[in-house]
Every structure is written in C-alpha cells, then in structure tokens.
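Appendix C reproduces, verbatim, an entry submitted by the partner laboratory led by Prof. M.T., so that reviewers can inspect both the input and the predicted structure.
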Amino acid sequence: MTAGGEDQVLLERDGEIAIVRLHRPDRLNAFTYEMCDRLVEIMDTCEADDTIRAIVLTGSGRAFCAGADLGGGGATFVLEDDPDTGGAPADRGGVVALRFYRSTKPLIVAVNGPAAGVGVTMTLPADVRIAADTARFGFVFTKRGIVPEACSSWFLPRLVGISTALRWTMGGHTVSAGEALEHGLVDEIVPAGDILARAVAIARDMVAETAPVSVALTRQLMWRMLGAPSPEDAHRADSLGVYVRGASADAREGVESFLEKRPAQFPDRLSDGLPVLFPL
C-alpha cells in the first residue's frame, strides 16, 4: 500500500521492508525542501515501526534524482541567513544525509537511473548502493559554481579514496555505473528492470534471522568507528556493546535457539530504545 498520495516521497511496504520512492518523475525527482522534510518524516516513521526491518530508497520513473531543482534560476542557491545564528543555514542535503546516517535500520539505495548533485551525495550514508545499468552519477557542483554538500566531504573519500573523490568533485565529473562500481561507489550493477527486486532481496538478507537491536548497534559501530582516532576507541565501544548485549534477552534467545536448532524469536524491540555505546 502506498501512503502519501501526491507527496514528493512515497512510502510502500514489501513485508518487513519499507520502500521509499522519490516521486517527482516529471522533474526527474529533483530535490526540494519539501522532499527533504518528507524524507526525514518517513525515516522517523520507519524507525518507530518495529515491523519494518530495513529500508530501500529508489526513484520513480527513469531517474533516481537529478539533483537540486533549478526552477528558481540563477537564484536557486541563494539562501537566507539562519534566524537563530545569523549565519549559514543548514544545508538541506546534509539534513537528509545525517538522518540516513543516524538510521537504526539497514538502508539500501537502488539507483534506478541518473543521479546528480544531491541525488548522489545523499546516498553516501547508505549501507549498500546498487545501480541500474542505465545509472550515471554527476558530481557537478563546481560546474554550477557551488561546492559538494550533504556531508560528502566526509563520506565520499571514505568510500572511494581521497584521490578519486578529488578528481570527481573538483572536475565536476559525471561517472558511469561501471566506473562507480570500479571505485566502490556502488556494490553491484543490475538491469534497470530488476533493480528494485534486487535491492529488496539484499535488504531482506541483511535482516533475516537477526536481532533488530543488535543490527542497529552493529550499524552504529561500523559507521562511527570510521572516524575513530585509533582501534582503542573501537575496543572500548565493542567491549561495552558485548557487555550490555550479553546480558540481554536477545542473547539468551540467540544461544538457546541455536542449541535447540530452531529459528530465534528475538524479544527486544528498537522502540524500547538502544543502549548508549558512544559518549555525546
């Protein structure tokens, strides 16, 4: 069932998998403030629903996202000062990227066609990205007189390496699906007609027979430790995670179900909250 009517982002379900669609096909799903707000709202909805185990993000029509909507002409990127600080407002692509980064559930992006600007950078915090054979990725910021956004100066070098990130972004390059695969921006290339089914299958494989709370904490550990100063930080966080989860009902059920050779029925729920493994 689709929720949202004519919303710029639609929420659907395939069993335990939420399917989120950017939905402005007549504008190649170009990014707007309304789309930003709706994506954050939908992520909050998915997070609060314990029956949703993973999220797949894709686009309606032939494109994934053409980047910022340029309908405002030359003034498109002119922003008003933040009324609270009098300075630069939060970049809206970054608002979405950080919401994706903070997800407690696996996020898979099915890039079903061309993706440019924020249409690329907002996908970088996803756990898996797969691309249709028709996809291409436009890092076109310098060709529009702006700079990369959506926290991509943090995410992109960690995915593809600093030299590739610099070459793509400083040169304003458009990258083919094959080049994206070669450098690790995407994990697979599939025929355009198969991409959503493949993304759902990947999502389902990531959560099958797993404890939701443990999945969420594992996601946090992996992403947060990308920026840790040393493995000592990872050791402290891992140790705390093992300590708090080892005494959980999930851990007891995980061991007992294994010994009894039956599927586990994990009782802990994300909606009850997560243990805190990292200082604020």
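The CA atoms of residues 62 and 114 lie 8 Å apart. Additional entries are available on request from the coordinating office.
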